Structures are given as structure tokens and as C-alpha cells.
Amino acid sequence: MDPLEIARWQFGVTTVYHFIMVPLTIGLGPVVALMQTQWVRTGDEKWLRMTKFWGKLYLINFIMGVATGLVQEFQFGMAWSEYSRFVGDVFGAPLAMEGLLAFFFESVFLGLWIFGWSRLPKKIHLATLWIAVAGSVVSAFFIIVANSWMQHPVGVELVDGRPVMNDIWAVLTNNTALAAYSHTIMGALAVGAGFVVGISWYQLWQRRRDGIDSVDAAGRVVVGENASIPGRDRKDHSVWLTSIRIAAVIAIVGFGGVAITGDVQAKLMFDQQPLKMAAAEAACQDGTSFSVLSIGNLGSQNCDDVVGIIEIPGILSFLAHGDFDTEIKGVNTLIPEYQELYGTNLPDDPLYGERAGMEINYLPIMEVTYWGFRLMIGFGMLAAAFAALTLWIVRKGTVPRSKFLMGTALLSIAAPFGANIAGWVFTEMGRQPFVVVPNPNPSGVDGVFMFTAAAVSPGVSGEEIIFSLASLALVYALLLVFEVRLLIKYVRGGVASAMPELGHPEGGDPGNSGDPDNPNDPNHPDRRDDVLAFAY
Description:
Pfam family, one: Cyt_bd_oxida_I
Region (Disordered): 501-529
Main location: membrane
Transmembrane segments: 16-36, 57-80, 100-117, 129-150, 180-202, 239-260, 371-392, 404-426, 465-482
Number of helices: 16
Shape: globular
Radius of gyration: 26 Å
Helix content: 55-70%
Number of strands: 8
Keywords: Cell membrane, Electron transport, Heme, Iron, Membrane, Metal-binding, Transmembrane, Transmembrane helix, Transport
């Protein structure tokens, strides 16, 4: 019932869950806005159908993201009051900007977009979506600024042991924040595009399975239609084919951006958090070799039993400095340096509770950093490879009838999510035992750091935190069930699920004009045209 460990689990569980929604919102928003832009430009109904279908899924995810994100702020005060007291003067500005500026624009203009169909001029209605999407991107920037200050404190001075911000511009232009932000946005684009690729593949496969589309002797698609299924006309095929091609290109571009920005971020980490990167590479000794595979005892807190199985000379130096011969300090060299700078034992202070005076273990959990780093890269490469394969397969206008390939396409949706989650777990757990990481070089502010052991609320018991953890886990599990069921429902319904005017796929008869005397009839003319049909 250790309050610190349970509080860390609580924040980790809720944050990772919330972050499932965040990259999809950020990555899918620009795709939907691009589709609506094409509809306004061309007037082609294909783009309208794409906008409404993907917009429906975007809204479901956005609302779940808001619901789960609200808990994060409360945790700062409930379980991490000492941390909040320490960073409050710095975090106040970017988090206020996020809430009062970015999220305000995001939520207000998204509301105008939801309820503005057929009520606002087309171009103004389109502008509301672009502003909402821009709000989500800017919102992410301010959150990343706050997080990156924990990774690399800048723009402050110490006053009575607390950091007080004296340069807001330095905080907003923190090189760690700029690298992490660009990396996060590229990763989000990969998530949104992968989501569209997987679902579009399923829809094209479903048309093949139902016998609507077929292929000729050359393997090229022969587009058909089925009037008995709402929305399954020739235009429907164009919706999914265009969606999958656009998304596959965006996915490949997103992965390329992730690789470039990730290289920049890694070089900064080697400079600012060298022990995190040494642990991520299982680099126990000084050297230049990159570990492809290393083994050791699970749970080991030292390098004594780590054995490199496959190593590539020079690659570690390239990742850190851009050359192949600069030697990188290993764990066994860095730990004594950390001990000299920050002490061998926690301060004998009541703030640390039972941990006061305990020996400090500066080595992060190597299994987490080592495999988190590799899973991040591996999942990203899998997602990009599948996107490239998809572009090749759909060059003739459809996908194979293979159920195995269809299942693989749906599973591929999880790959960029896995890459994002693995990357954040590596980033956050790799900075332990610090919650605010010290700067070992002149680019930061000397002496600004905080041990995680000092950050937890002193008046909260382990029993109280574990109760809230169990409660939140239960609520979040229920929300996850609801979201997945909603997404599955509307994905299976296809475009018609977001456009009642094409027919009601659940309980409605597309050949029935509706009973004008029964407003509950799913085919009632007023219900078909009601904007709430799209919103809800």
C-alpha cells in the first residue's frame, strides 16, 4: 500500500488510456477537414460522404478524449500536491493557455461545425472545422510545453527552493518541447491515417464479400451497386478507395516525419538525459555499438548480468552525435556522475516519508526503456510498411477477398497506437527517479529538479489512492466498451450510418419515405434532415 507506487500506477493508467484518444483526434481532424475542403471546392458528393462518415468517428473519439482528459488535472491536486506546488508557477501559464485559448477554440468551433450543417454558408462552416482542428493542434503544443519542462527545465530561477518562471519565451521555445511536439504531431498523423486505412480496407472487402464489386481478368475492379443496402452504390466504392489512398500516403509521410523528428529528439535526450538513453540501449559500458538484442535478468537493477547478443558498431554514436566514432558513456560510467551531482541518498526530510535517507537508484527499469524504445520503432515501421503495401494492392481499385488480409488490415490500426504508447511510456518512465529532470549541461538551469519520492501528496494514504485507482479503472473500462461499440456500430453501418438521408441501416427501410404522422419513424423526413441525426 505504498502511496507513491500506487499514485504512479494511477497516473500511468489514466494517462495512457487518455492518450489512446489524443493522437486519433489530432491525426484524424486534418483528414476530415481536407475532405470537407474538397467537397466545398468540387461539389462532388463523394467528398461529402467521406466528411460525414469520418467526421462521425472523429466526434465519438473527441468526446471520449475530453471525458477521460478531465481526470488528469484533478490528479495533480489529489495525489501529487507537492509536485503541483513545485511546478505550479511554471505550469500555470501553458496550461492556462491550453484551457482558455486552445481548448476554447477547439470546443466552441467544433460545436458550430456539428450544428452548422445546412445552417451556415459552406465556406464558413468549413472554416469552423479548420479552426477546431487547429485548436487541437495548438492544445497539444501547450501540453507538450508543460511536459517538456519536466524533461528539461528552462526559463526559471530558484526562489526559496521553488522554480519561478522569469522567461515565458524560453519555456515556450524549449528545444525539448519543439522536438517532442513535432514528433507527437507526426505520430498522431500516422495514427489517424492508419485508422482510415484499416476501416477503408474493411469497407472495400465488405463490398467484395457481398458480391457488389468484382474483378476482371486483369485483376481490375468492376464496380457494382446494391440498391437493397443503404449507401452501397457506385459512389460508395469511390468513397473508400479515395479514403484508403489518401490515408496510406499520409501514413507513410507521417512515419517519415516521425523518423526525422525522432532522430532530433534522441540526440537531445543523449545530451539532456544520458542515463535514460544508455538504459534504452542497454549500454552498460562506454562504446559506440547499438544493441539489436541484449538479454539479462528481469527486474535487475544493475548492469552486471546484461549481455549483448547482437550489436552494430558505430550506430549508437550516429544516433547520439551524427558520427560513427564518438564514444558514448555507458550506465556504469554515468551512475557515479549522477551520484556526485545529486547525492547517493534521498534527503533526510519528512517530505520523503519512509523513503527519507534511502539510497537512490538512478537506473530506470531497463526492460521498460530498452523494449519501449524498440517497440516504438518496430510498431511504427510495421504501420508504414502496411500503408505502402496497401498503396500497391489498391492500385487496381479494390482489395482482395482474403479474410486474413482484412483481419490484418484491422489489426494494423493498432500498430501506430502501440508506437505512440510505447514511446510515451519510455519517455516518462525513463526519467525516473526524477519527476522533474535535472540538467547535466549548461543549456538548462542548474539545481532545478525534483525526485519523484518527494512529489506525492503527504496526506493521502495508499488505501485511498488504490480505491480511486480501482474506481477510475472501472469507469474507464466501461467508457472503452462504449466507445468501441459505438465505433463498431457506425463502421459497420458505413456511410449511411452518418447520413440518414441515404437510408437508415438499423430499423429503417430505405424504400420507405417515412410516416409523416410518426416523428419516431427512423425514415421520417424531419429526422432524416435533422442535424442532430449527424451529431448523435
